[in-house]
Amino acid sequence: MEIEELPRTTEQIEQAHKACLDGARNIDRVIATHAKGSDAVSSDFGSDMTHEEKKARVRRSVGYLKYQKENYDDWGKLDFAVIDKAIADADTFTGDK
User: Fold this and answer.
1) Which among 78, 80, 84, 88 has most CB atoms closer than 10 A?
2) Cβ-count burial 33-54 (b if 16+ within 10 Å, e if not)
């Protein structure tokens, strides 16, 4: 028996969008730290991670973003430019393009 999902409330949609923006920010921060190479300092997000750990972190974040975009179509006029860019950047970084 399939359970029918109730429509999301405006508040739930806005919270999910904020979570997507937070995920995009995490992706950007990990990639920026990686780009610094040996110039990264301990206060840079993910500076203590190996390249493979950074890729795993980015994959988890981008997986969430893709899931949200693929499974919900009730976003209305919320802006996805930052999220779409993070998805593209993540796929390039991880080689999952």
Assistant:
1) 80
2) bbeeeeebeeeebbeebeeeeb
Q: How far apart are CA 27 and CA 24, in angstroms?
A: 5
Model pTM score? 0.89
Contact present, 61 and 23 (Cβ < 8 Å): yes
Q: Are 25 and 87 in contact (CB under 8 A)?
A: no
Q: What would the pLDDT profile of 78-87 be if each residue is shown by its tens digit?
A: 999 999 999 9
Structure tokens at 51: 């390249």
Rounded CA separation 33/29 (Å): 6
